[in-house]
Amino acid sequence: MSIASKPTPKGYPRMSASVVYERAAPAIDWLCKAFGFEVQLKVEGEGGRIDYSQLVIGEGLISVGDDSKGREWRRSPKAIGGACTTTLCFYVDDVDAHCEHARSAGATIASEPKTTDYGEDYWTDRSYEAIDLEGHHWYFMQRLK
């Protein structure tokens, strides 16, 4: 079965993820500084609260917003004892340089860059894992072959 889908809006990929922070405004600034995201859209509400945003890196897009009180299912890992129910993965051109840049910006490097060969029928990647200021886990990868 094929379900038809109209083209996405200009500048919007077929798939995106949403990340919630207790303090989204400084998190957005930090994600741009540490990981190289760029702000495509930012909607501020009362008191500087981020109601909605779009950050891009390459063809990837995430939305970042503040914790929504009354929507307990949508919380920052910081608000729930560090539990993280999703991880985000992005391909970059130079994973080692990206890791060092993220480290210098204050990211916790949970796993140093390493090369994984998935076998002759698949591919080889070099990747690392970083944890941001509120406990979200991020993977950055570089396809080697």
Q: Would you write up a description of this structure?
A:
The protein has helices at about 25-35, 95-105; strands at about 15-20, 40-45, 50-55, 60-65, 85-90, 110-115, 125-130, 135-145. It is of the alpha/beta class. The strands form 2 sheets. The chain has a 4-stranded mixed sheet, with helices on one face. A 4-stranded mixed sheet has the order 5-8-7-6, covered by helices on one side. Strand 7 (about 125-130) and strand 8 (about 135-145) form a beta hairpin. The chain is globular. The model has no long low-confidence stretch (mean pLDDT about 90).
Layout of secondary structure:
Layout: E1 17-21, H1 24-35, E2 38-44, E3 50-57, E4 60-66, E5 87-91, H2 95-104, E6 108-117, E7 124-131, E8 137-143
Parallel strand pairs: 1-4, 5-8
Antiparallel strand pairs: 2-3, 3-4, 6-7, 7-8
> Are there runs of 5+ residues with pLDDT below 50, and where?
none
* CA-based shape: globular
Give the fraction of residues assigned to helices: 10-25%
Radius of gyration: 16 Å
For the report, how would you describe the main beta sheet?
A: 4 strands, mixed
Oligomeric organization of the protein chains: single chain
Strands of the widest sheet, in order across it, are 1-4-3-2
Distance between the termini: 33 Å
The helix-strand sequence is EHEEEEHEEE
Secondary-structure-based class equals: alpha/beta
Please state roughly what percent of the residues sit in beta strands, choosing from under 5%, 5-15%, 15-25%, 25-35%, 35-45% or over 45%: 35-45%
